[in-house]
Amino acid sequence: MKGETPYTLKETLSFITKNFYGIDSTLWSAVFAVHGSPLLNEFSYYEKKYGAKLITNGYWGKVHVYPCKLSKFFEFEEICHLCNILEKIFSSEEGWYMSEVYHYAQEDGEKLKEKLIKGRFQA
Predict the structure, then answer these.
(1) Where are the domains of the chain?
(2) Cα 68 from Cα 54, distance rounded (Å)
């Protein structure tokens, strides 16, 4: 998110932990600006307002796809690691199982667990 702060990150993490059982899946990704995109065209505004930076050196400068550090508070690599952690939380067997149980809570828990695991791992 443009201008992410420790406070907004705390709000986001609080929301997903409070609503974990109601979230089926999530997609987390760092932001990249591509040549000709509105984000790239307006980036000077984000630099001034949020302390955002583009990584334009090396490979990124050659392909014109720029990783974005969208806040003065977090480095691009930190956001990438956070995204990976959040993806793993919602991709775990336990996370998958808990989200399925939430949606089918009217069924018996053990029968449901067997049914879901059997269905998921059958070829």
Answers:
(1) 6-91, 93-123
(2) 5
